[in-house]
Structures are given as structure tokens and as C-alpha cells.
Amino acid sequence: MNGRQSKIARAATIFGIAMFAGVMPAAAQAPPSYSGLITMLEGWRQGNVAFTLSATGVPCNGQFILNKSDAGTPKLFAILVAAKAAGTPVRAYFGGCGPAEG
Q1: Exposed, middle or buried: residue 51 (CB in 10 Å: 0-12, 13-18, 19+)?
Q2: Would the pTM count as exceeding 0.85?
Q3: How far apart are CA 72 and CA 77, in angstroms?
Q4: Quick check: 38 and 80 in contact, CB under 8 A?
Q5: Cα–Cα distance for residue pair 79/90, rounded to 1 Å
Q6: Per residue, what are the HEC states of the chain?
Q7: Closest CA to 84 of 47, 44, 52
Q8: Are 63 and 51 in contact (CB under 8 A)?
């Protein structure tokens, strides 16, 4: 390929990537997040953790669930306990509604 063909191929590749990104659903580009103070925090017997924030418009009955099988759930629970005790706001990223384990 000569220099001009290389520039055209590169431009076509960039255009193709831009077009692909433009048709992706918004949820795939950036998950929504909610920030606020922790208003409810509970550890369940089977190991799941549930919490709510003071943020408005949170789907799924306003609860966030960390399942016992999620990587880092014990550490995240400790962080949430510390944030609640200190009155520090947190941000939770929302990936969709679903049933809790157990």
C-alpha cells in the first residue's frame, strides 16, 4: 500500500469505529450511576448485601444488591459500613435489575 492508500484505509477504519460506537445503545457506552448517602444497609444471612441511597430515581425498588458470589463483596460491604458511619456519600453504578442469590 502506498501512503495515500494507507491514509484512506486508516480514515475508513476510524469512520467505521465511529459509526459502530454511534449505533451502540447508551447503556453499553456508560452505565448509569447514582450518588447519595446510604440510607439503608444490611447484610443477609446467606451473604448478600443490600443497600439504598438517598438518590432519586433508582430503579429496582431503589435497592442495590451485592451477591455473595460477586468478587469483592466483603470488601465492598466494609467500605459501605465505613461510608455510612462517616456520613460520606457514595456512588453506585447500575447494571440492571435481577434477582438476588439465595
Answers
A1: buried
A2: no
A3: 9
A4: yes
A5: 9
A6: CCHHHHHHHHHHHHHHHHHHHHHCCHHHHCCCEEEECEEEEEECCCCCEEEEECCCCCCHHHEEEECCCCCCHHHHHHHHHHHHHHCCCEEEECCCCCCCCC
A7: 52
A8: yes
C-alpha cell at 86: 462517616
Q: Looking at this protein, which amino acid is placed at residue 61?
A: N
- Please list the pLDDT of the chain residue by residue as tens digits (102 residues): 555 544 443 433 333 333 334 444 544 556 789 999 999 999 999 999 999 999 998 988 899 999 999 889 999 999 999 999 999 999 999 888 888 887
Cell numbers at 80, concatenated: 459501605
